[in-house]
Amino acid sequence: MSEYAKNKPAGFKNAIEKVAIVGAGGTIGSHLVSALLKTGKHTVTALSRKDSSNKLPDGVNVAPVDYSDESTIVEALKGQEFFIITLSPTAPRDTHSKLVQAAAKAGVPYIMPNSYAGDIEQVQFGVDTLLGPVAKAHREEIEKLGMQWIAVCCGFWYDYSLAGGEARFGFDFDKHTLTIYDDGQTKNSVSTLAQVGRAVAKVLSFPLFPQDEEDKSLTISSWLNKAVYLKSFVVNQNEIFESVKRVTGTTDADWTVTHENTKQRYEEGMALVKKGNMSGFGKLLYSRAFYPEDPSDFAAKAQNELLDLPEEKLDDATKDGIELLKELQKRPERMAA
Ligand SMILES: NC(=O)c1ccc[n+]([C@@H]2O[C@H](COP(=O)([O-])OP(=O)(O)OC[C@H]3O[C@@H](n4cnc5c(N)ncnc54)[C@H](OP(=O)(O)O)[C@@H]3O)[C@@H](O)[C@H]2O)c1
């Protein structure tokens, strides 16, 4: 049954204004916050661990929380209209569920669950990378508790993945080495961090529901219990390498390039993860995404036009990625996994 604004009680506000977020100072969260604040339509409340050392962006309201005391999370979420969860992969496993349960108690109707990755409908890819079943369980828990979700399918973050070390797009900028998967020709659809921020802010800026049966304009409700799909580029490693050479003013002679078979690399990564060595995770994830017969390329589903997202230039994003290098190198635990 479709919901319409005309059927809501008097005083109903057909928009999302109050947005709460976990991870406001994080890799993707900081971009979501800056894009949301730029719209001028949203107030943003950052739920942040009371002992967090993460710097929160200017302009957000801060709600310190304690994950061992649910009431602090419920209190922070009361009155919030949309809840975005961006959680560090190193956060304890049950953190997402704690947040979702607190949101239900606080009466928050909509949640953007942690994932920000590949196509949630590319089931085998999700199973092979171990991420799919976890993200599915998050979405199911939200529904079971009577709330609705909007997932973000953006593919790899281009700038982050370029800077993120050999295990990701294959580049080690300190050593000037590059590992190319297979022949380097398999393409992925990928998004810059900024493009993800813009897409989420656009979706949350539409009216919540159509006015009535005649109203065919875009509304947030058309994404409820669905994913928003976006991209910045559809690229392969050879194209990324060309861009890196242009941006850094280097040539082939400056780089040591080796080739690795994606399937073998995936198996090696999985063997490490099975032994509890999470340095294998990036290896298995990125090599699997570049499998020639089933890559992480869902450009056909991207809603860039619908969301009026800008065209970006690959070399600009490459520059941003290289600038991100120093930031990421300050997070050795992250570079290692
Ligand atoms: N598409 C891609 O290429 C890609 C790449 C990486 C990650 N991802 C996805 O995006 C998600 C977010 O990644 P991110 O890099 O943005 O995260 P992040 O910056 O590492 O962390 C986000 C927030 O998690 C909170 N946090 C950290 N440790 C925690 C702990 N032990 N317990 C509770 N909260 C903790 C922190 O908030 P406070 O300090 O304010 O409490 C932090 O700001 C990942 O989980 C993953 O699903 C996608």
From TrEMBL:
Pfam families: NAD_binding_10. This is NAD(P)-binding domain-containing protein. Keywords: NADP, Oxidoreductase. The keyword Nucleus does not apply. Belongs to the NmrA-type oxidoreductase family. Isoflavone reductase subfamily. CDD domains: PCBER_SDR_a. InterPro entries: NAD(P)-bd_dom (IPR016040), NAD(P)-bd_dom_sf (IPR036291), NmrA/Isoflavone_reductase-like (IPR051609), PCBER-like (IPR045312). Residues 23-160 form the NAD(P)-binding domain. SUPFAM superfamilies: NAD(P)-binding Rossmann-fold domains. The keyword Oxidoreductase applies.
